[in-house]
């Protein structure tokens, strides 16, 4: 397992106040737990993944996600079982929609 | 809108099964009560350890609900997963709900946590029987893609009432286990038709191991669970002896059958092979083993 941590500066507070969980830790899949929490305007992301050596790709996928939604004061925790970048983006966008992101495609 | 039970996650099943907005989770993912064993094995954990538990209402009646996530390590019962299920069943003794609903989707014990998982399953069975003894029915709802095997298969048959969909499976040893232990001549685990007519909902219904057969639709499970809220099977020596007599009679009547098709034919079903193609409503009308 590899643990990765990322932090982005955001400006958009989530519309929801309750945590949301999407996805399942199954083969080629992942779960995303997104929790609104005051943390000085950041979007904090913690990743636990079964696939080693993909830190640069995680950073690119998460940066794209952050450019779409720009969350502030959110902590995102991910348990990953080898999901592809497309699946990761899908789950992140599902979590963003449930968090009430103005940038989410409905 | 129709929601497939088999294709939904454990959380989605609970959401659409109980009264809208009534579910209140206990030890949810935010608590991060994860498996201590998986981390030692360098394997990803899940924030809910593959099981969702909580309080809800069904047709306005208070119920407790547990739903296993078959997508996480085959719904395997690990130490925490099992403890959450045991805790929920024990909570039933204090809460005294109308029923406890268990949405099983599990291959049995999580082998990564073998001994802890085995102990957990035995604790689940004891807690389930304590609940039944207290007069609180336990309903098993089986419709996940993983099925209900191993220890959870035993748990299911300890319950008051079993609801299955026609795509669901219920058994003790899974197909691969039987093939590994007894050889491919005994059971070919890759023969999907064989697997389903041996362990699937249709056969379990006809053979009396499942009380209600429904379509793969969460609304159909909701309807069956609502109808079964009072489906209490008294837990007494007399009922236990009756169950043993029933099993002995079944073995006596069907013990020489090599295939479910033989059993269906002996049940008097004309053209037994058509059972696999009948729709669920038509199948319910067939005389079954009682």
Give a short synopsis of this structure.
The complex is a heterodimer of chains A (106) and B (290). With 106 residues, chain A is an alpha+beta fold. Chain A has helices spanning 55-69, 85-99, and strands spanning 2-9, 20-23, 30-36, 42-49, 74-80.
Tell me about the largest β-sheet of chain B.
Answer: 7 strands, mixed
How is the biggest beta sheet of chain A arranged? 5 strands, mixed
CATH topology of chain A: Ribosomal Protein S5, domain 2
What is the level-2 CATH architecture name of the domain at 10-170 and 210-232 in chain B? Alpha-Beta Complex
- Low-confidence parts of chain B: none
The mean pLDDT of chain A is 94
Proportion of helical residues of chain B: 40-55%
Q: Reading side by side through the largest sheet of chain A, how are the strands ordered?
A: 1-4-5-3-2
- Quaternary status of these chains? heterodimer
CATH topology assignment of the domain at 10-170 and 210-232 in chain B:
2-enoyl-CoA Hydratase, Chain A, domain 1
CATH architecture of chain A: 2-Layer Sandwich
Content-based structural category of chain B: alpha/beta
Class by SSE composition of chain A: alpha+beta
Encode the helix/strand succession of chain B as letters: HEHEEHEHEHEHHHEHHHH
Give the count of helical stretches of chain B.
12
Q: Give the N-terminus to C-terminus distance of chain B in angstroms.
A: 35 Å
């Amino acid at each position: 397992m590899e643990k990765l941590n990322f932090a982005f500066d955001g400006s958009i507070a989530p519309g929801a106040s309750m945590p949301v969980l999407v996805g399942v830790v199954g083969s080629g899949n992942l779960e995303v737990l997104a929790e609104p929490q005051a943390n000085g305007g950041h979007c904090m992301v913690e990743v636990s993944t079964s696939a080693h050596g993909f830190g640069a790709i995680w950073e690119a996928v998460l940066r794209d996600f952050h450019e779409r939604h720009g969350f502030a004061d959110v902590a995102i925790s991910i348990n990953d079982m080898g999901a592809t970048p497309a699946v990761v983006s899908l789950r992140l966008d599902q979590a963003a929609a449930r968090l009430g992101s103005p940038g989410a495609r409905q | 809108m129709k929601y497939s039970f088999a294709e939904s996650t454990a959380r989605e099943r609970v959401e659409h099964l109980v009264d809208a907005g009534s579910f209140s989770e206990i030890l949810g993912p935010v608590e991060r009560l994860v498996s201590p064993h998986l981390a030692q094995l360098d394997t990803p954990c899940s924030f809910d350890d593959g099981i969702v538990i909580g309080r809800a209402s069904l047709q306005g009646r208070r119920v407790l609900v547990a739903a296993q996530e078959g997508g996480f390590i085959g719904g395997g019962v690990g130490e925490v997963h099992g403890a959450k299920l045991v805790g929920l069943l024990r909570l039933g003794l204090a809460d005294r709900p109308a029923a406890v609903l268990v949405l099983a989707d599990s291959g049995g014990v999580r082998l990564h946590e073998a001994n802890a998982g085995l102990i957990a399953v035995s604790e689940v069975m004891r807690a389930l029987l304590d609940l039944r003894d207290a007069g609180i029915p336990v309903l098993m709802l089986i419709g996940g893609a993983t099925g209900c095997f191993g220890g959870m298969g035993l748990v299911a048959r300890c319950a008051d009432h079993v609801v299955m969909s026609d795509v669901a499976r219920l058994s003790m040893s899974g197909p691969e286990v039987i093939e590994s232990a007894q050889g491919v001549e005994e059971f070919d685990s890759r023969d999907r038709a064989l697997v389903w007519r041996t362990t699937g909902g249709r056969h379990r219904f006809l053979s009396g191991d499942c009380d209600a057969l429904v379509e793969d639709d969460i609304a159909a499970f909701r309807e069956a669970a609502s109808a079964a809220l009072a489906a209490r099977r008294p837990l007494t020596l007399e009922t236990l002896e009756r169950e043993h007599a029933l099993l002995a009679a079944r073995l006596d009547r069907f013990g020489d059958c090599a295939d479910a098709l033989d059993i269906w034919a002996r049940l008097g079903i004309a053209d037994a092979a058509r059972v696999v193609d009948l729709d669920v409503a038509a199948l319910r009308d067939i005389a079954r083993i009682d």
